[in-house]
Design goal:
Blueprint lengths: L6 H15 L3 H10 L4 E2 H8 L3 H13 L3 E6 L2 E6 L2 H18 L1 H14 L7 H10 L3 E4 L3 H6 L6 E2 L2 H12 L4 E4 L6 H12 L4 E3 L4 H6 L7
Parallel strand pairs: 4-5, 4-6, 6-7
Antiparallel strand pairs: 1-3, 2-3
Helix pairs in contact: 3-4, 5-6, 9-10
Length: 221
């Protein structure tokens, strides 16, 4: 006899709540930003271009799905990820599934990402080995406040706004590997393009800081 409310159905119901929480592009972007470190509602709203009320509503959905957790500091609310490693891994799996099965995503990847950088990105294992050898310079091109919350060991924080002023000194440090928020973050693509235009050997890390941390690789906080 089948039960309409057995243990499997209860589990599926809770999993469906998580899936529903991910069913909005703004909420996925919020999770990407929070994966860099704890964020205030005001900061998230400003970065995504939302009103405070809309940002708060999205955060409440993510909170009910147990994906984010709040912390109050005075009048301000800050949010961080719950089960950070699992959430980052879930987003990465979602991205891979979309790239494989959804033609529109693959087209964006071809037109924007792969057309701008046809070279194979550097994997985490290869980068770790090169860092141990001291044979590469690592650039974190995220905003300084994200860098301050955590970054790869030995990374230099150089945003795109300051990259041109650093080109001469970076040329003496090549080869260079740049990384940012994740696999769809355009900052590292732009940084590598600028460096190569100046004849500097540069490549991207295949993912970003959250994926590196979630995989258990060393970070500096």
């Amino acid at each position: 006899m089948k039960s309409s409310n057995g243990p499997k159905q209860q589990i599926f119901s809770h999993l469906a709540e998580i899936a529903a929480a991910l069913a909005h592009p703004h909420r996925i972007e919020i999770l990407e930003l929070i994966a860099q470190g704890e964020r205030s509602v005001e900061d998230l709203a400003g970065r995504i271009g939302l009103s405070l009320s809309n940002a708060s509503r999205h955060l409440q959905v993510l909170r009910r799905a147990r994906l984010t957790a709040p912390r109050r500091e005075g009048k301000n609310m800050f949010y961080s990820l719950v089960s950070e490693t699992e959430v980052v891994t879930l987003l990465a799996s979602l991205g891979r599934l979309g790239e494989r099965n959804i033609a529109e995503i693959d087209q964006v990847m071809q037109v924007y990402f792969r057309a701008r950088d046809a070279l194979e990105p550097v994997s985490r294992l290869v980068l770790l080995e090169r860092l141990r050898e001291g044979s590469v310079t690592l650039l974190d091109v995220r905003p300084p406040e994200e860098f301050a919350q955590g970054h790869l060991p030995g990374a230099l924080n150089v945003t795109l706004d300051h990259l041109d002023a650093m080109l001469d000194s970076l040329a003496a440090r090549s080869p260079i590997v740049a990384y940012c928020r994740g696999p769809y973050c355009v900052l590292s693509f732009e940084a590598v393009a600028r460096l190569r235009a100046r004849g500097i050997e540069a490549m991207r890390l295949d993912e970003g800081y959250p994926e590196w941390k979630a995989a258990g690789f060393p970070v500096k906080i």
